């Protein structure tokens, strides 16, 4: 142990010890501060920027949320559907904040309050949707309620499942029956949540002969149940649809309920049509859902309530099993899920709830009645009186088909023709749906692909009207837009086959069959170096098609042109859009072929000219160097010496002409510039010939755009103009009748004599008549011989 410094007798040693102690303390403090700073740097480096420091104020945080919701100011605004949040929406949003505040109460008050909220909401929903003596489970994910019901059914049918677990299921595998029209991915979700293998799912097909093609085939379902029982399986649960996800059709729930009671199967119903249970009039097929074992409701979209949970109503007498299945909970915070819906239902009241659902059904009926009056539109509606979903599509009647059957092809039609017609209509319906969504965003339309009907457009106001604020005026606007787009669809579909034939008959063009393109067609120009067997991109072809696209867009026609890769390869093609009027397809195809050929020839001419110019420059350099050497020989060596050369040039100047070379681009030859320096003028050279154009010259009326057929009303104009044409011809013949008598005094016989006015007039009329006959050969007067203007031979010559 070190002795205290005060006990050291030597003052020098004591001073040295004191200084050393202070120095060591300073070093230790410095090291400690360095370590603390490094620790802070490491800590701050690991923490994200918004969390560093003492925190941020509320305004900055809300500004950050706003930027994340709507994007930065530099970004382009995106056209998305904005939810119409009214006062009922604010009440629902208030419920989430209020639920967080209520969760801070003491346990006894929280238990009483949550029990009251849950019981009130369950009672109100059961009374509104006619489901007596039911229980409710509130969940965020719509499919979560069905998964809990499946777990409840397993516990109900397998008494030893709690003890033996999946060994019970292995000995007698459960079967869950789903309709073929169910939402995609539902069966996989249930198996993942329950831990069941996929063979536990059974897909029930829909009707093929009788009834709706989107309803479950009850007879086939009964056959499947019997087969599963014979194989030792246990039919567990059946999921029926009261409004399928695609077209809103309802299964025969009454017949399905009888079948489930017969074989002890749990019946669960889901679908948008369950919302109509709140109305005064309900169809019998939907009303039968009130007798099922459970149903899933989605009141949020139906009533326009944001962030409101879905509800699964069920009937079961054993609270222990429902607790094990997860349908009930002892946690008060789980019961607070019903708080937003509890507040919203009180705010709307029964009249407000019924009014919103009734308004959505009236919108569907309004659209359905209006579409019945529109040609080339087929409606896929199961029940015309009460269906809240309207699905429609554009179709074109095929030869030998029944219009009422959606243009079902005749037996003698080739399958390729049927498939081509189907793909064409699908592309057009997809285009129609996207156009209507942009023109009427409040309609909430969706485009979907059905297995049998093809691409269709769906209007489901029960899931969108309350959110988007759809009104009756929006439906009328939707009908007006459909009527404006129908002529474009019919005209485009009629011109497709003509365009394909014209392209097939034109050299250098290849028709590209793209089933996803809704326009007239797709065409590709095959240049000389095109490798037809290759599917890779072609730089030369891409350059030609880019120039072709630019030329076509410069014509300012009503057609739209785009360039993109081919459907099955990476080669560039020209995509021709929709036709809004009668288009002259032959002129369109010929213009494309000629323009592409000219671009290819000009490109090759430019390449050849570049090579010729390069060789010409090299030849000119050689000739100029040779001429310079000859000049040195003529002038002599003495003239090249600086001082001596100047004296000689002063006494005896050299008369040397400036010699150069000029390159004639037209002739591709190298010429001398002596003529230019001698006569002080530029040589005229050879006049380049005009570039021949293969495009057909078509006479257009004033204001008529390219690729338009001649209007029928132009016949009257041509008849009116033909009268003046014939009068000019008669006047010209009358003046030429006395021409032979005055030809002796013609200027050709007497040079220097002025031309009389009659001769000038006759010549002008001759030129005008010739132009009229060339432009309008159908207006030429019928006569035995053509009118000729000849000059008699002078006798003295």
Characterise the protein shown here.
- The protein has 797 residues and is an alpha+beta fold.
- Among the domains are: 135-331, Type I PLP-dependent aspartate aminotransferase-like (Major domain) (Aspartate Aminotransferase, domain 2); 359-398 and 418-489, Alpha-Beta Complex (Aspartate Aminotransferase, domain 1), CATH 3.90.1150; 503-529 and 537-601, Aspartate Aminotransferase, domain 1.
- Helix content is 49%, strand content 10%.
- A 7-stranded mixed β-sheet has the order 1-7-6-5-4-2-3, with helices on both faces. Strands 8-9-11-10 form a 4-stranded antiparallel β-sheet. Strands 12-13-15-14 form a 4-stranded antiparallel β-sheet, covered by helices on one side.
- Strand 12 (509-512) and strand 13 (521-525) form a beta hairpin.
- Helix 3 packs antiparallel against helix 15 (339-371), helix 5 (144-157) crosses helix 13 (319-325) and helix 23 (714-737) runs antiparallel to helix 24.
- It starts with 10 loop residues before the first helix and ends in a 22-residue tail after the last helix.
- Residues 399-415, 685-697, 712-726, 735-762 and 775-797 have low confidence and may be disordered.
